Amino acid sequence: MSAPTAREADWETAPGLLDGAKELELGPQHCNLAYWFTEVAQGTLRDRGATGHHVKAAVPDFLRHPGPLREALVLEFGFRSLSEEIATRLLGHYVSLAPGIPEMEFYATQLMDEARHARVFRNHLVELGLPEKTLTADIAEMAAEYRRDVLQPVEDFTLQIVRDQADFPGAVAVFAIVIEGVLAPAAELSERKWTPLSEATQEISRGTAIDEIRHLTVASTILRDHIRDSPDYRPRLLEILAAGTELWDRVPDRPYVIHREELFQQGMAEQADLIGDYEVWPGVRLLDTTPVQRYDMAERWTDEMAASRMAYMGLPADALRRSEVR
Q: Which end of the chain has fewer CB within 10 Å, C or N?
């Protein structure tokens, strides 16, 4: 009999992304290659390694045919696949710059995670009926403006820290606290809103969220330990976090998110009977939410997660305070 999977990596017992990122404590010494092979590859991904969802998790017919819900999902997973591809390429710098074996092994596993995420997002679009032969080019064309306006400034900022300045803890902060810290709540929303509509889509989001918990918590531990052992680095870390926060205030992600949430809203109305009284968060039915409300809730989750991680690292929460107007 195989050993049980660690709770935070088990499909049934892992917490949600928000709770896990705020409550768990994991470090690179624990989340090494052995952990990844046993707890992730043989645990989280058991029976879901190829597609990100169980073979019994179906894609509903209405997502295979033209309509606003299908268009919203194509945009969401198309953009996310491109984001994860860029993340994978960036993480190569983290592996080479890592100061020790635990950090090197952890970022090697995160590189694999992000590459897998990009793959399952792409493959899900094929399950929806997009042609596999031209998929990469189709995503690049579809997401060209999003890449230019949103992803490129973040990629350039990250490369400046990790490649040009070779600042490993600074790069850890950029990736985990700024990039994933902002994008993770949107991933949480994705899992919640697709749950009543598509089991396959929900499972893909669930699996990626379990990975993101590990990424966020391990990075927070690396930073906590670094500023504990090298307190002189604290001002530099706060400077990077402030610059990253200011960058996200300038990046025009809102129009892209609101556009696909408006498409989701139209499609949601068409599938109202299927969604029924499902609550997207406690006491609020998904059918009663608007695109702006969903976007604003993801923003609130971002702030909550940031405050929790900053406290864990012994840093002031207001170092990540963002502008009210974006």
A: N
CB neighbour list of residue 246: distance below 8 Å, 6 or more residues apart: none
pLDDT score, position 214? 95
| Residue 324 within any structural domain of the chain | no
Phi/psi region, residue 47 (left: phi>0; alpha: psi -120 to 50; beta: rest), is left
Following CA atoms 15, 21, 27, 28 in sequence, which dihedral angle do they give, to the nearest 10 degrees?
Answer: 90
pLDDT for res 2: 64
The pLDDT tens digits of the residues spanning 232-260 come to 999 999 999 999 989 988 999 999 999 99
Contact by Cβ (8 Å): 221, 26: yes
Q: Which residues of 49-78 are buried (b: 16+ CB within 10 A; e: fewer)?
A: eebbbeeebebeebbeeeebbbbbbbbbbb
Alpha helices for the chain (secondary structure H) = 17-23, 33-35, 68-97, 101-127, 135-142, 144-146, 152-159, 168-172, 181-194, 199-229, 234-250, 254-270, 272-275, 291-313
278: tokens are: 């499902």
CATH of the domain at 52: 1.10.620.20
Residue range(s) defining the domain that contains residue 159: 17-315
Total number of domains constituting the chain: 1
56 found inside a domain: yes
Distances (CA, A) of 223 to 119, 229, 247, 256, 285: 29, 10, 21, 32, 38
Inside any domain, residue 111: yes
Sequential DSSP letters for 291-323: HHHHHHHHHHHHHHHHHHHHHHHT--GGGGPPP
261/167 Cα distance (integer angstroms): 37
Nearest-angstrom CA–CA distance, 287 and 158: 38
Q: Amino acid letter at 157?
A: F
